[in-house]
Amino acid sequence: RNLEPVTQLYVSVDASTKESLKRIDRPLFKDFWQRFLDSLKALSEKQQRTVYRLTLVKAWNVDELRAYADLVSLGKPDFIEVKGVTYCGESSASSLTMANVPWHEEVVRFVQELVELIPDYEIACEHEHSNCLLIAHKKFKVDGEWCTWINYERFQELVREHERSGGSKTFTAADYTARTPHWALFGSSQRGFDPLDVRYQRKSKAKDISGC
């Protein structure tokens, strides 16, 4: 609650119900659910950029749309980043398999259904090769254009002004936004791939069994 201004504050939302969060995260504290809810409430009080990070695990937490929407109304994040889980191999600490990795189109469908339940938000960006989409609050859509990127130089200026004022001069997420490039927008033909980068396609005849 007393955190100094940061560029962007994340909270991982690995599940939307007490039961599924316990199964996925295997928490150490008995009061884990209340701690989680308190974290979301505290997030709603921050003035700088706040983000929910939702990791979708197929067959584990992709059917809890209404519960996710309720958590959004609790923390009121500026952004919601939704990503399919990344499988990192077998582990005694996890029962995840490749079957739990959602296909990108499944992530897209989940996000489309979720925004129907949270009217203050829209799908803003897509990063297909990361199996990820960004939902943004409509206040970041200025004159019909998304401004979801960060103006880091402006943020540093605002922090210096905040410090010189002894903390009395505050600022909000809207004060250091930058326009989103067209290739990062949801619905663009690039689907989040920067055209200035070089993309290498794997030349393998092996069957692709990934969900990404």
Please summarize what this structure is.
By secondary structure, the protein is an alpha/beta fold. It has 5 helices and 9 strands; from the N terminus they run βααβαβαβββββαβ.
Please indicate the percent range of residues in DSSP E strands (runs of 2 or more).
Answer: 15-25%
State the share of residues found in helices, binned by percent.
25-40%
Mean pLDDT across residues: 87
Order of helices and strands: EHHEHEHEEEEEHE
What would you call the quaternary organization? single chain
Strand order in space, largest sheet:
1-2-3-5-4
At CATH level 2, the architecture of the domain at 8-141 is Alpha-Beta Barrel
| N-end to C-end Cα span | 36 Å
Number of alpha- plus pi-helical segments? 5
As a whole number of angstroms, the C-alpha radius of gyration is 19 Å
What is the name of the CATH class of the domain at 8-141?
Alpha Beta
Structural class: alpha/beta
Protein name: tRNA wybutosine-synthesizing protein 1-like protein
Domain tRNA wybutosine-synthesis: 75-137
Pfam family, one: Wyosine_form
Organism: Anas platyrhynchos
Characterise this structure.
By secondary structure, this protein is α/β, with parallel strands linked by helices. The protein has a domain at 8-141: TIM Barrel, CATH 3.20.20.70. The chain has five helices and nine strands. The strands form three sheets. The chain has a five-stranded mixed sheet, with helices on one face. A two-stranded antiparallel sheet has the order 6-7. Strand 2 (49-56), helix 3 (65-75) and strand 3 form a beta-alpha-beta unit. The longest helix has 13 residues, at 152-164. The mean pLDDT is 87.
